[in-house]
């Protein structure tokens, strides 16, 4: 859908606010554009470009018993459909009971200087340097007897936020992901690598192909191991998948109500408790270099610790874990008041600093005997009270002996809690940007170190590749 046929995003936001007859109104216009490449068997298969808009209208209605809210989101909204959308949100609010999280809408601050500018858009030009380098990698892989499969995706979302209290904010969010699989011709060996990027200028297909080629050589020797507890090196991508789930489970309200691993026995939360002996810092910062995210709350719906009433609230650097101690849990204004904890809305990135300087390769060199994982897959929650998770290893588990990888072992199902892992980790490596394999469709801005866990629980053998 082109903006020319339906109005510029900021004009749509202003018009929707003018049409509102509710006591309060929030309008969010998300302008999306994507460019992608896909390949299989060392050949490019498809490429494409998409454009679209999603408009969300949040109406608030005051009543004797409190303020109610109604939220309606639609894509491809034309000028003629705008008023019906606003009326639908108002009808939803009037038909709802008082909203538990109701608070005064955020007051206006400085207006984004680019609020009236055209939305940012990605194009196929984002792959101008990457695509030729990928083609060269195809040739090298073909000559080396391996096949490359994968995709590259780049998204650019311009979000325009306007409210009846005068908030006028805009944020442009680039988001790029690359996933690359190398397979032996008989498909018996497979290796995976992924990268997160803002613009594909920092992605080197040749380096990734070389990394995967080395892993396929490791896999030429197959070693069968039973289930059990092993010293294990978790690479940054696996650490990211586990700690992102921990962040998603860090609801202050759920903890205060006794439902999570962060609940204190007898009542209250574990804020202030020591979670790790290592001086770990788990944090989010909208201004983190290379992982920049929206500096204000963008809430399309309310949840336990997010609120549509908080739209436009400024975000700042937040320490979730500091020096190994639990420092913050996720709160909205409403849940902060309920729990007595500081206001700490979620930020769309996550960084773990462990103070280590060694690379994953150097950690391998310092391992007497242990397992080296590639990534985790199919992660599911087993027990929220302990945050016990289960999942599978995938695309390569390798045995390390006396500082060298000596072969590939079978895959496993694991049972572990990320909170418990932090308490048992004996070493953290150097923090680096990474792409979570499991959650890469939802959360891409992460930087993690590799972690050494002396007794990672491989609960059963898996037949997966």
Number of helices: 10
Return the string of H and E elements: HHEEEHHEEEHEEHHEEEHEHEEEEHEEEE
| Rounded mean pLDDT score | 96
Instruction: Count the E strands.
Output: 20
Name the beta content range.
35-45%
Can you tell me the overall shape? globular
Protein model, in words:
This protein has 465 residues and is of the alpha+beta class. The protein has 2 domains: 3-215, 2-Layer Sandwich (PmbA/TldD fold), CATH 3.30.2290.10; 221-302 and 314-465, no CATH class. The chain has 10 helices and 20 strands. The protein has a 6-stranded antiparallel β-sheet with strand order 3-2-1-4-5-6. The protein has a 6-stranded mixed β-sheet with strand order 11-10-9-12-19-18, with helices on one face. The longest helix is centred in the N-terminal third of the chain and has 16 residues, at 79-94. The chain is globular and about 70 Å long. The protein starts with a helix and ends with a strand.
